[in-house]
């Protein structure tokens, strides 16, 4: 989809959110002294923002394929709800909170794959980036879900890598106007 259908406010929002997500995810990876709860809450806040942006885009970007809009909106709501659960109930066991974040990231990855497949109007490179990024995000989330015994910091590294991928896609989206 060309940038003529991609509002400038949305491109700016994608760029800012992408930069923040990459910066925060790198901070989490590079500073292992952060407390577990702080790390989980930080990832949850980033996911809540991404979910909320997906909901807003579903409302305002009417030229998206209907199935892509439904997927985007549904995943946006689910990611926001899961993330808000982590934010509102920080006293739950860390393992449960990581599991909620893991499933939110897997949903985001699946959504990117579906939207990349359905949006035939996007440039081929943009669709490939969307699908590839979705596969990476889903795979890291899946590994974290399947192997919860890897240890907290290994799981956080996987989830942070998934969030860095999501952030990079948002940055490219904001700069080029080609992605959604």
Structure description:
This protein has about 180 residues and is mainly alpha-helical. The chain has one domain. It has helices spanning about 10-30, 35-60, 65-90, 95-120, 125-145, 150-175. Helix 2 packs parallel to helix 4 (about 95-120) and helix 4 (about 95-120) packs parallel to helix 6 (about 150-175). The radius of gyration is 15 Å and the shape is globular. The chain starts with 7 loop residues before the first helix and ends with a helix. The mean pLDDT is about 85.
Outline of the structure:
The chain is built from six helices and no strands.
Secondary structure category? mainly alpha
- Principal-axis shape: globular
Main pleated sheet: none
Number of domains: 1
- Could you tell me the strand content as a percent range? under 5%
Q: What is the number of beta strands?
A: 0
Q: Distance between the terminal alpha carbons, to the nearest Å?
A: 8 Å
Helical amount: over 70%
Using only CA atoms, what is the Rg? Answer: 15 Å
How many helical stretches?
6
Low-pLDDT parts are none
What's the helix-strand series?
A: HHHHHH
- In round numbers, the mean pLDDT is 85
Write a concise keyword list for the protein shown above.
globular; mainly alpha; single chain; 180 residues
Write the layout of secondary structure elements.
Blueprint: H1 8-30, H2 36-60, H3 66-88, H4 94-118, H5 124-146, H6 152-176
């Amino acid at each position: 989809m060309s940038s003529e259908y991609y509002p400038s406010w949305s491109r700016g929002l994608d760029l800012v959110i992408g930069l923040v997500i990459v910066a925060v995810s790198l901070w989490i990876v590079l500073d292992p002294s952060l407390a577990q709860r702080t790390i989980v809450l930080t990832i949850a806040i980033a996911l809540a923002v991404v979910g909320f942006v997906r909901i807003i885009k579903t409302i305002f970007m009417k030229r998206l394929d209907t199935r892509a809009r439904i997927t985007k909106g549904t995943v946006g709501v689910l990611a926001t709800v899961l993330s808000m659960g982590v934010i509102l109930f920080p006293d739950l066991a860390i393992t449960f909170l990581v599991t909620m974040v893991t499933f939110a990231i897997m949903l985001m990855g699946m959504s990117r794959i579906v939207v990349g497949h359905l949006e035939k109007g996007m440039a081929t490179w943009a669709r490939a980036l969307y699908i590839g990024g979705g596969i990476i995000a889903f795979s890291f989330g899946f590994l974290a879900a399947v192997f919860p015994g890897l240890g907290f910091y290994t799981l956080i590294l996987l989830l942070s890598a998934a969030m860095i991928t999501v952030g990079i896609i948002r940055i490219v989206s904001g700069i080029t106007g080609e992605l959604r």
